[in-house]
Amino acid sequence: MDRQLDRKRFGPVVRWLANNRIRAQVFGTFFVLWLAAWVVVGISLYFVKKNFRDNYYANLELRLDVIEGILTSTAGETSLQNALDSQSPAFAPYTLNVSALDVQNPRKAFDIAAQSGCVVEYSGKAEICAAFGNQPIAGAFLYIVGWIESPEIVAHVPGEPTGMAHHIKIRTQVRNEEQDWIIVFQEDPRNRRNRQKPLSETDLYATGYRVEPGAVLANNGRDSKDLRGRLKYSSIPWSCPGASCVSRWQFAMRLPIDAFRGDLLSSSVWPPKDFRNLEVSVVFMPPDLDGTPAVPPLLDSSSNDAKRKYSLEAELGPRFSPWERVRIYRLGDKARPLWQSSTVDPSSALALWTQLGGRALSLLPIRFVKGDGGYKRLIEGRFGDYDLVVTLSEEVADSYMRPLASQLMTVLLGILADPGGG
After folding, report:
1. Whole-angstrom Cα distance, residue 41 to residue 37?
2. How far is Cα 165 from Cα 90, in angstroms, rounded to an integer?
3. Are 131 and 94 in contact (CB under 8 A)?
4. Prior bond to 271 cis, omega within 30?
5. Looking at the DSSP assignment, which residues form a beta bridge with residue 125?
6. For the CA atoms of 369, 374, 380, 386, what is the dihedral angle to 10 degrees?
7. pTM for the full model?
8. CA distance 105 to 58
9. If you write DSSP's letter for every residue of 61-78 in order, what string do you get?
10. At 49, which helix (H) or strand (E)?
């Protein structure tokens, strides 16, 4: 009975094979070749992924050594200490890696600020940094250093309106307290009387006037003894186009922040924890007698072209692969990363053949990610220790190997389909 059922079920197939023996042999041969081609492709993809993975982990250690050197440098570690959010403005208060700056030497003060990574540049025409020292011993002072380019600086003469000279308007606001300053630069009285040296060969001393909010001039104002600073001729840029040269002038000053004076004695933390809430505006103005300058400001810290000269994103971002998610934490504090790499969405529009290559990679009996997908490195710094965590994703890694896999599949299947090259 069973044999009769088998004959009825497979009889047509047997008769077709008997009548089409040659055709069946041809179809069988092509099927075996097609299956062998995919086996060759699978083996090739396996070794491609394995070599890619092995080379990646061998290179990761070398890259982390370089990154550790960046993070333990003065600028790198100071940037970690400050850990500015991506939403923070470019010009924001910083913490230096020293307790104070010597504002009587603008060039030295600016070099130290630049080493700390706090300098903000404005289209190559000015640079500025606003920062606190890292120890309370120097007092509750905000240091402002930088340089501007100007053909000539008009020094202020005591007794004359401040608008007749170059001056700086500074506004600070924190804890519902606002301070407005107008700062001018005066030359040594002896040099002014005898005119022994031009302004480019002498230092100009900063004099600061506390003014009412919104004031444009500080006529007959009372200068502050706590404010100190200097303006000093620096150099002529190499790009100077002949007669239209402008000179570079460096400035450095310190401003007392009254709202933070109480923290010097009442708290062991300096700067205060809320020092990032301090809003600072710095505008370097040319002479403007009536409060309306004839030319734009030489420097406006709120300008849209502000760009932080040193940033961890620019230093570290290009050194990591797209499938790596990197986070840096303060040792023992995993609540908020000090820095993390920008995430990339791998699910972009891909061709069907490219998607097939990625699918083939995911089916291979080898994983790109080892262990739990996390790679850690302890960074030992001068101001603290940090955890650098590299998180890998199998799916994301495969997605970035899809183009390579699809190209390899195309080449191999093309060779197998036409082994003679005809």
Report:
1. 6
2. 29
3. yes
4. yes
5. none
6. 140
7. 0.71
8. 48
9. HHHHHHHHHHHTSHHHHH
10. helix 21-71
